[in-house]
Amino acid sequence: MNNQDFTAAIFVEKTPEEAFDAINNVRGWWSENIEGGTEKLGDEFTYRYKDVHFCKIKIAELIPGKKVVWHVLDNRFNFTKDKNEWKGTDVIFELSKKGNKTEVRFTHRGLVPEYECFDVCSNAWGSYINGSLRSLITTGKGHPNPKEKEAGKKASP
Residue of 31, 78, 134, 151 with fewest CB within 10 Å of its CB? Predict the structure, then answer.
């Protein structure tokens, strides 16, 4: 049986250590709404996108310049029947030197085509990895989701 987990890879003209540092700057490429630590083994952080998506992640493995593994402890979507589809899955970043470039291989183990969110989630991950994370690694500036206004402070009609 073929591995059906979502995977994407990018090649950048930076060192594995530079790519590793960028990956761990989660607020710099995924979302400015990240709360909690994102750089040490055992750190836990939450991601929130409006009322659409919430997840709690633990850094399960951290090998400088080589690998980062996030384990999804909790997850809620507002657009799927199974609100917890990501719960128990792993988000993996593997780094390797390829000539004068670094390959960043991204795998969301457990995000499979059978999941209702597969199309939306794989498209979003592809955009974050190929766009925002690549930009953060190569230019020092990513394109994360901007910080949301505080809950309870509603925009004027």
Answer: 151
Tokens matching residue 39: 């750089």
- Fold classification of 6-12+26-139 (topology level): Alpha-D-Glucose-1,6-Bisphosphate; Chain A, domain 4 (3.30.530)
47 vs 2: CA distance, rounded Å: 30
Distance separating alpha carbons of residues 65 and 15, to the nearest angstrom: 8
Residue type, 150: E
- Angle, vertex CA 144, rays to CA 140 and CA 150, nearest 5: 130
pLDDT level of residue 150 (50, 70, 90 thresholds): low
The pTM (predicted TM-score) of the whole model is 0.91
Residue 149 has a pLDDT of: 75
